[in-house]
Amino acid sequence: MIRCAKILEIPEILASTKACSKPILETGRTSVSLVAVREATDMGPKYIGAHTIAINLWLFSSFFIDGYGAVANIMGGRLLGAKDYIGLWNLAKKITGYGVVVSVVLMLAAFLFYNPIGNIFSN
């Protein structure tokens, strides 16, 4: 009997897609930073500082929230390996909720402390 090669399953395709897209997105973040700083250099030194502070705060928020995704991947892999699909679904809902709450808290903090953050970086 002739055996056919195993066709990739959907989780394997998704995992490889995620592994390939993450470096592309990280490169995009770096490109945005470079373009922002290049544009700011045409405006003057005050704008260079402002753009640098803004991009650093944005990167901090982005990586902070991305940490929840990394934790979800680790915990989700354990649940997927155990074939606990209901637990995996509940984990996805819980992590999404945590991500939304953390995002809102970071947005409120940035909104409420806009002037004090600017004073910290400009003095």
Distance between the termini: 77 Å
SSE order in H/E notation? HHHH
Going by helix content, strand content and strand pairing, the class is: mainly alpha
In total, the number of strands is: 0
Q: Tell me the major beta sheet.
A: none
C-alpha Rg (nearest Å): 21 Å
Task: Give the CA-based shape.
Answer: elongated
Helix content: over 70%
Query: What portion of the residues fall into strands of 2 or more residues?
Result: under 5%
Average predicted local confidence, pLDDT: 76
Contiguous runs where pLDDT drops below 50 for at least 5 residues: 1-8
Number of helices: 4
List the defining traits of the structure above.
123 residues, mainly alpha, 4 helices, elongated, disordered N terminus
Walk me through the structure.
There is one protein chain. This protein has 123 residues and is mainly α. It has helices spanning 10-43, 45-81, 85-112, 114-122.
Q: Secondary structure elements and their pairing?
A:
Blueprint: H1 10-43, H2 45-81, H3 85-112, H4 114-122
Short characterization:
With 123 residues, this protein is mainly alpha-helical.
